C-alpha cells in the first residue's frame, strides 16, 4: 500500500473558505501554479498535514467515515488526486 507525504516546498492558505496551495521553488512562490482544493481534497490535504503523511488505506477509511461514498470510489478518486499532486510536486508517494 502506498504512503503519501507532503512536499516541504509548498505554502497553503485559506482564502475565502477554500484551501489554496502554492508551490515554492528556490524561495519564490510559483504563482502560475496555484491549486485550489474542493471540500474533499481539502480534507485529504489536512489529513496529511495533521498526520505527517499517511497510508493510502488510512486516508480511504477517513474518507468513508466523513463522506457519503463507497470504498471503490474513494480509492479511485484518491489515486487520481494523488497522481495530480505528485505530478505537480506537491506530495511524494512511497
Q: What composes the largest sheet? A: 4 strands, antiparallel
Strand fraction equals 25-35%
Count of distinct structural domains: 1
Order of helices and strands: EEEEEHEHHE
Q: How many separate helices?
A: 3
According to CATH, the fold-level topology is Arc Repressor Mutant, subunit A
Q: Find the count of extended strands (DSSP E, 2+ residues).
A: 7
Give the CA-based shape: globular
CATH architectural arrangement? Orthogonal Bundle
**Approximately how much helix is present in the residues?**
40-55%
**N-to-C CA distance:** 9 Å
Q: Which segments are poorly predicted (pLDDT under 50) over 5 or more consecutive residues?
A: none
- Mean pLDDT over all positions: 89
Give the radius of gyration.
Answer: 13 Å
Reading off the top of the CATH hierarchy, the class is best stated as Mainly Alpha
Which structural category do the helix and sheet elements fall into? alpha+beta
Amino acid at each position: 500500500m502506498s504512503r503519501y507525504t507532503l512536499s516541504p516546498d509548498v505554502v497553503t492558505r485559506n482564502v475565502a473558505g477554500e484551501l489554496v496551495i502554492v508551490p515554492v521553488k528556490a524561495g519564490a512562490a510559483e504563482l502560475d501554479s496555484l491549486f485550489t482544493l474542493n471540500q474533499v481534497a481539502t480534507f485529504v490535504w489536512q489529513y496529511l498535514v495533521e498526520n505527517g503523511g499517511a497510508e493510502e488505506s488510512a486516508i480511504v477509511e477517513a474518507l468513508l467515515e466523513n463522506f457519503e461514498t463507497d470504498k471503490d470510489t474513494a480509492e479511485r478518486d484518491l489515486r487520481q488526486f494523488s497522481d495530480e499532486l505528485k505530478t505537480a510536486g506537491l506530495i511524494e508517494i512511497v
